[in-house]
């Protein structure tokens, strides 16, 4: 982490902010400030260079064409890869998750190279689009409560040997591979299909990113009653699909 | 079609039968308490005569109105304006898919003008069926993400559907997606109607380049796609017509967005020969549209009912509510008609409500609660509308709700 403040970088809101993705940035920012941290949030448009000195990077979901444009511009820019080499924490959702992998299928039906920051490959599912509430158990090593989110994707993401499943689904599709995995992660890079936005329903994920970025084991507690109430409601809803 | 000189031929026996059968089905549906019956009636009629919509419209000068936001209100404003030139038939209740449109037209056999609201997804098809004289395109933005087409794909569909149309397209020059959709059309009247929400058009619909937006202007830095020069302009409380004359807008409907709707409506009225002064004067008559903007007395408070279905709609609504300390009640559902994904709440800048006492209700009040908590606002979560209303002192309350939440509130207050 840089000396004075936590640098939170939101990557390409002009292309990848279709599903309320700003929410993830707002929740991380809010929870950092509640712990007395000074936060500098940087929203980087796709015609601007990605800063390489950020502590936490968020990259969101988007439609097929903006996803291709984002991948092209991120590859050309190279900043996110350099930030990852510097040990930055990167959290990605849906289209952003696919971009961080080795490749995905773009809007033209072609294989589009990703950034290779996480060992996954995404293809396009043959079946119905995955839409709806999801409930999943997060990898116990991460010490987080159940994952609740809303998925809306056609993509199917296959994990390679150096990526671990972020969670195992109880209800819903997640990675769409049929093996019950949802999302992927390695030491510093995380990917999920969960919208909601995911941090609003799982504020402990925001705290995990803060802990990793600050290199601490614990954070002061916050008043999470509304998050908890929402979680209870959504977990119950996912358990009783319509 | 008595009294309409342009009426070439009466409806065929088959079309007449279809209209009658449709009306019968609607009556049955009404009797069964299933709403106005307009959609079921139209469905029955279209099944008996699939070309009925086109045949019903044949005798009318038609204008189609489509947009993500404001189409019901604008349809109402245009209908009011064209009333100056002759009888109007319109789907005023917002049944805006082919069946509902058919049903509405079947009820207007004496009309000269058809003013028709069309769901965004059906615009191209309806435009093919009814050969409109004009098409008004107001705005396009994200809405119902769990099932709607991508916003840009919708613009693309409009563009393809309108490319062969002979209609005069009256289009908002301030919305790049609308401009992209309309510019395939040979005959466009551009209206500078404004668009507060900009987050669906940062990327050029033509080439994908990043859009530049200095002041009110916009252009793509890469391919040269840019804002067209408008011939009608919304300027504060006035509409500037193509001759540069400024006409005052007097509306009972509140807010900037409705002034924009009035400006577009005046441009449409001119296509039908109704001068702006006449059109705008008539628009003053419009008070509430399907309950929207209505003020009702409930539990000794005056509640103004405001409908906002998506981020662009909420943004425009925040700009028209009374300032603090007027209490605000927010209600959000996520049923089928609303879209089941609530993530759009995070695209809405709720910090604009700072200073207002806020209560949240609706099926998804907890999503709202977390949203407002993260925005750093104070709020109360209430189980019912009554509870939320009783928290406020006697006087004015602004109530903002999305689609089915709005219907729930109307039922409760007896609107």
Automatic annotation (TrEMBL), chain A:
Active-site residues from the entry: 94, 195
Keywords: Cell shape, Cell wall biogenesis/degradation, Glutamine amidotransferase, Hydrolase, Ligase, Peptidoglycan synthesis
Domain of life: Bacteria
Pfam families, sorted: GATase_3 (PF07685)
Transmembrane feature ranges: none
InterPro entries noted in UniProt: Class_I_gatase-like (IPR029062), CobQ_GATase1 (IPR033949), GATase_3 (IPR011698), Lipid_II_synth_GatD (IPR043702)
Residues making up the signal peptide according to the UniProt record: none
Domain CobB/CobQ-like glutamine amidotransferase intervals: 8-202
KW Membrane (keyword) present: no
Pathway it works in: Cell wall biogenesis; peptidoglycan biosynthesis
E.C. number(s) listed in UniProt: 6.3.5.13, 3.5.1.2
Binding site for substrate: 129
Function description: The lipid II isoglutaminyl synthase complex catalyzes the formation of alpha-D-isoglutamine in the cell wall lipid II stem peptide. The GatD subunit catalyzes the hydrolysis of glutamine to glutamate and ammonia. The resulting ammonia molecule is channeled to the active site of MurT.
PANTHER family associated with the record: DETHIOBIOTIN SYNTHETASE, LIPID II ISOGLUTAMINYL SYNTHASE (GLUTAMINE-HYDROLYZING) SUBUNIT GATD
Name of the molecule in the record: Lipid II isoglutaminyl synthase (glutamine-hydrolyzing) subunit GatD
Organism of this sequence: Streptomyces lichenis
Gene this protein is translated from: gatD
Automatic annotation (TrEMBL), chain B:
GO molecular function: ligase activity
UniProt enzyme class: ligase
Family matches, as InterPro entries: Lipid_II_synth_MurT, Mur-like_cat_sf, Mur_ligase_cen, MurT_C
Active site: 341
Every Lipid II isoglutaminyl synthase (glutamine-hydrolyzing) subunit MurT C-terminal domain range: 307-405
Pathway: Cell wall biogenesis; peptidoglycan biosynthesis
Binding sites annotated in the UniProt record for Zn(2+): 204, 207, 220, 223
EC number: 6.3.5.13
Keywords from the UniProt entry: ATP-binding, Cell shape, Cell wall biogenesis/degradation, Ligase, Metal-binding, Nucleotide-binding, Peptidoglycan synthesis, Zinc
Annotated catalysed reactions: beta-D-GlcNAc-(1->4)-Mur2Ac(oyl-L-Ala-gamma-D-Glu-L-Lys-D-Ala-D-Ala)-di-trans,octa-cis-undecaprenyl diphosphate + ATP = beta-D-GlcNAc-(1->4)-Mur2Ac(oyl-L-Ala-gamma-D-O-P-Glu-L-Lys-D-Ala-D-Ala)-di-trans,octa-cis-undecaprenyl diphosphate + ADP; beta-D-GlcNAc-(1->4)-Mur2Ac(oyl-L-Ala-gamma-D-Glu-L-Lys-D-Ala-D-Ala)-di-trans,octa-cis-undecaprenyl diphosphate + L-glutamine + ATP + H2O = beta-D-GlcNAc-(1->4)-Mur2Ac(oyl-L-Ala-D-isoglutaminyl-L-Lys-D-Ala-D-Ala)-di-trans,octa-cis-undecaprenyl diphosphate + L-glutamate + ADP + phosphate + H(+); beta-D-GlcNAc-(1->4)-Mur2Ac(oyl-L-Ala-gamma-D-O-P-Glu-L-Lys-D-Ala-D-Ala)-di-trans,octa-cis-undecaprenyl diphosphate + NH4(+) = beta-D-GlcNAc-(1->4)-Mur2Ac(oyl-L-Ala-D-isoglutaminyl-L-Lys-D-Ala-D-Ala)-di-trans,octa-cis-undecaprenyl diphosphate + phosphate + H(+)
Domain Mur ligase central: 68-269
Similarity remark: Belongs to the MurCDEF family. MurT subfamily.
Record note on quaternary structure: Forms a heterodimer with GatD.
Task of the protein: The lipid II isoglutaminyl synthase complex catalyzes the formation of alpha-D-isoglutamine in the cell wall lipid II stem peptide. The MurT subunit catalyzes the ATP-dependent amidation of D-glutamate residue of lipid II, converting it to an isoglutamine residue.
HAMAP family associated with the record: Lipid_II_synth_MurT (MF_02214)
Protein name per UniProt: Lipid II isoglutaminyl synthase (glutamine-hydrolyzing) subunit MurT
């Amino acid at each position: 982490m840089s000396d004075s403040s936590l640098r939170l970088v939101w990557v390409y809101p002009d292309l990848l902010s279709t599903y309320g993705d700003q929410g993830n940035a707002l929740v991380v920012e809010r929870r950092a400030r509640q712990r007395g941290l000074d936060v500098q949030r940087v929203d980087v448009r796709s015609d601007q260079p990605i800063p390489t000195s950020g502590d936490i990077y968020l990259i969101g979901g988007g439609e097929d064409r903006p996803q291709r444009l984002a991948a092209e511009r991120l590859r050309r820019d190279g900043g996110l890869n350099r930030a990852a080499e510097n040990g930055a924490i990167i959290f990605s959702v849906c289209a952003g998750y696919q971009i961080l992998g080795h490749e995905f299928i773009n809007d033209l039906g072609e294989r589009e190279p990703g950034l290779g920051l996480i060992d996954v490959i995404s293809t396009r599912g043959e079946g119905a689009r995955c839409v709806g509430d999801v409930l999943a158990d997060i990898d116990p090593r991460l010490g987080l409560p159940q994952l609740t989110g809303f998925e809306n994707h056609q993509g199917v993401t296959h994990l390679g040997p150096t990526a671990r499943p972020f969670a195992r689904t109880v209800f819903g599709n997640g990675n769409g591979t049929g093996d019950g995995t949802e999302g992927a992660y390695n030491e510093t890079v995380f990917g999920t299909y969960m919208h909601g936005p995911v941090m609003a329903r799982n504020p402990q994920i925001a705290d995990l990113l803060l802990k990793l970025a600050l290199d601490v084991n614990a954070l002061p507690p916050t008043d999470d009653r509304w998050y908890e109430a929402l979680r209870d409601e959504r977990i119950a809803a996912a358990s009783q699909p319509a | 079609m008595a009294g309409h000189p342009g009426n070439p031929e009466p409806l065929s026996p088959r079309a007449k039968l279809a209209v009658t059968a449709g009306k019968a089905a609607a009556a049955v549906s009404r009797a069964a308490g299933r709403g106005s019956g307009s959609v079921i009636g139209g469905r029955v009629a279209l099944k008996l005569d699939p070309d009925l919509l086109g045949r019903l419209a044949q005798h009318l000068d038609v204008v189609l109105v489509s947009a993500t936001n404001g189409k019901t209100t604008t349809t109402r404003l245009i209908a009011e304006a064209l009333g100056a030139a002759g009888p109007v038939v319109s789907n005023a209740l917002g049944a805006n898919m082919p069946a509902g449109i058919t049903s509405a037209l079947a009820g207007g056999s004496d009309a000269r003008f058809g003013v028709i609201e069309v769901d965004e997804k059906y615009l191209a098809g309806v435009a093919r069926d009814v050969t409109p004289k004009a098409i008004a395109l107001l705005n396009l933005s994200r809405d119902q993400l769990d099932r709607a087409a991508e916003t840009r794909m919708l613009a693309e569909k409009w563009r393809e559907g309108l490319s062969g149309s002979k209609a005069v397209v009256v289009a908002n020059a301030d919305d790049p997606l609308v401009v992209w959709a309309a510019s395939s059309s040979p005959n466009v009247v551009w209206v500078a109607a404004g668009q507060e929400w900009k987050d669906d058009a940062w990327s050029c619909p033509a080439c994908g380049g990043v859009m530049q937006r200095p002041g009110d202007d916009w252009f793509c830095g890469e391919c040269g796609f840019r804002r067209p020069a408008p011939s009608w302009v919304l300027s504060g409380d006035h509409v500037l017509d193509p001759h540069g004359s400024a006409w005052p807008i007097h509306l009972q409907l509140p807010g900037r967005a409705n002034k924009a709707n009035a400006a577009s409506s005046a441009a449409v009225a001119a296509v039908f020969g109704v001068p702006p002064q006449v059109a705008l004067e008539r628009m003053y008559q419009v008070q509430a549209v399907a309950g929207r903007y209505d003020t009702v007395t409930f539990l000794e408070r005056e509640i103004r009912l405001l409908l906002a279905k998506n981020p662009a709609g909420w943004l425009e609504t925040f700009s028209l509510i009374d300032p603090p300390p007027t209490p605000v009640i927010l209600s959000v559902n996520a049923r089928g008609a609303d879209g089941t994904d609530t993530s759009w709440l995070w695209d809405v800048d709720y910090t604009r409500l700072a200073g207002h006492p806020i209560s949240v209700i609706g099926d998804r009040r907890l999503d709202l609660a977390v949203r407002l908590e993260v925005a750093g606002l104070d709020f109360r979560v209430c189980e019912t509308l009554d509870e939320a209303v009783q928290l406020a002192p006697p006087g004015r309350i602004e109530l903002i709700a999305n689609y089915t939440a709005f219907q729930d509130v109307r039922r409760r207050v007896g609107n």
